[in-house]
Write a structure and sequence with these properties.
The structure is a homodimer of 340-residue chains. Chain A is 54% helix and 7% strand. The first copy, chain A, has 340 residues and is mainly alpha-helical. The first copy, chain A, has a three-stranded parallel beta sheet. The first copy, chain A, has a two-stranded parallel sheet with strand order 4-5. The interface between A and B is large, with 54 and 54 residues.
Amino acid sequence: MTTQTITSSDIILTGDRTTGPLHLGHYVGSLKRRVELQHVCRQFLLLADAQALTDNMGNYLKVRENVLQVALDYLAVGIDPEKSVIFIQSLVPELTELSSYYLNLVTVARLERNPTIKDEIKLRGFERDIPAGFLTYPAAQAADITAFKATIVPVGADQIPMIEQTNEIVRRFNASVSRDILVEARAVVPEQGARLPGFDGKAKMSKSLGNALPLSACADEISHAVRMMYTDPNHLRVSDPGQVEGNVVFTYLDVFDEDAERVAELKAHYQRGGLGDTVIKRHLEGILQELLAPVRARREAFAKDPQAVMDMLKRGTEKAREAAAVTLAEVKGAMGLNYF
Amino acid sequence: MTTQTITSSDIILTGDRTTGPLHLGHYVGSLKRRVELQHVCRQFLLLADAQALTDNMGNYLKVRENVLQVALDYLAVGIDPEKSVIFIQSLVPELTELSSYYLNLVTVARLERNPTIKDEIKLRGFERDIPAGFLTYPAAQAADITAFKATIVPVGADQIPMIEQTNEIVRRFNASVSRDILVEARAVVPEQGARLPGFDGKAKMSKSLGNALPLSACADEISHAVRMMYTDPNHLRVSDPGQVEGNVVFTYLDVFDEDAERVAELKAHYQRGGLGDTVIKRHLEGILQELLAPVRARREAFAKDPQAVMDMLKRGTEKAREAAAVTLAEVKGAMGLNYF
């Protein structure tokens, strides 16, 4: 994702499902960039509790409690609610209204062909028992994006088909009313390396895989995670030559150590032998402790006054509703559903 | 449908898609009974513009204009907006919110197995290009019904699976929150004979088949319709014996002539021969003219002041929103989506 292509007239829509606190993978993949981008253009950050429910009906407490947890994570990494509009999805009913009309603009066959949906259905083992709300969530996502006339949606490469689906809906709606009311969005995919592997070496850092370092991790958790970190299983003695590829410590150093020259030296040393895992792990741990200490401190400070955080979310939600209401009025007006 | 089983504590939800003015078939099948039932219990009448859009995206003018036309039909037959809450579906956003959660409680496979949906998909020739909003409309209908805690939904026999689907959603939701918040509804099917054939003898009276007599029909249209009416194609001479079964004039007399004895005599006479089509048609026409003249007069009177009708719809819509908002608050509260 290159900031250059994003200008002050852009509008960003992004967010997170509220199914668990955020971790270092989120920081690298999106949060860090959001902190930068909030100074560039308008940014709406969605706490997607309603979307979380599409496959969490019954897990109400989890979805609710993580609204506050994710908000704390946002504030902890430096997202500024005066710059970014942070809001709760379920409290913006305009989104479900838009979504209900968009459902008429997309066929069931088209939804079933959506590669992202196909993958996620497989991942969740839904087979034929897909909740309808899960199959149709591209229409809900189109509502999230278009309600704010977002021009930029930062997504993983696997999510690109979702943005294409949104833009199809945009074009169909505009054609049906012969006016350009909705705005197409551009998927912006993070640069290579923005996806952090789990500390066990698995491709994805994920709370459910138990290989994630939450942003709220205390010093001991960070130590523990680095100690557990996957390196080179054949690097048995310090003097042995070690492998750098797939070695999570070096993957992390590539991401977190700002001194690229030093990382290159460490890699070379490790490859020729004589550099122990303990040394590189201690080095990485120092960097991670330094990175996360202020995040944790800010998070703890905000967590002391959850009411203030909820008040901030209330204000953000009001701003989001205002923006979404404008779009909804235009959409319904164009369809003639403005009777009074 | 027997009024005896409906008591003052019941709540009725019913309504019409706003795709065209209503006709004599609607009068016999539902409107007449609504006029009676509004004195028995609370009744919500839905002008289903949003549902009409599920297969009418782009036909916005048609859907919009028929909101007023259907409202005029309601008033013309004697539905009293002080007794029945008449409201516009698209102006009650609480319905789309409820619907969005209900979508998570029903699987795609279950929707595809719904016999009503299957038939209607076939009828519309959708095949695999079913708009998602059309497949998922049972969830929207469940929202319409449950928002008002309706206990009674008058439907045709073909719509019974829709009410079963609603009740499944009700049970699933209540189980998921371990509380009885939503209320199951009972499908009430009109008695035999409540479905009026078209005047061409086809099973269903329908505007699109061109065999319908609109409630706003003028005297000439009524004459013409009766003249065109299908009788017994083998009844060539007055003296010939004629057939009563499938003879639309007699089907209509069974429904509209309150003097059952006289109808029995006419049938006997027609069957043994000596009774001409002209005579029975003149008799039926007299009855229909008498039935529809005051309906037409009332319709014309109300149509003179469309603003007053729209004001009435506005008040009805406000009442509907109030009722739906109570249910929505309970539903979202039970799911924990009440943050502030």
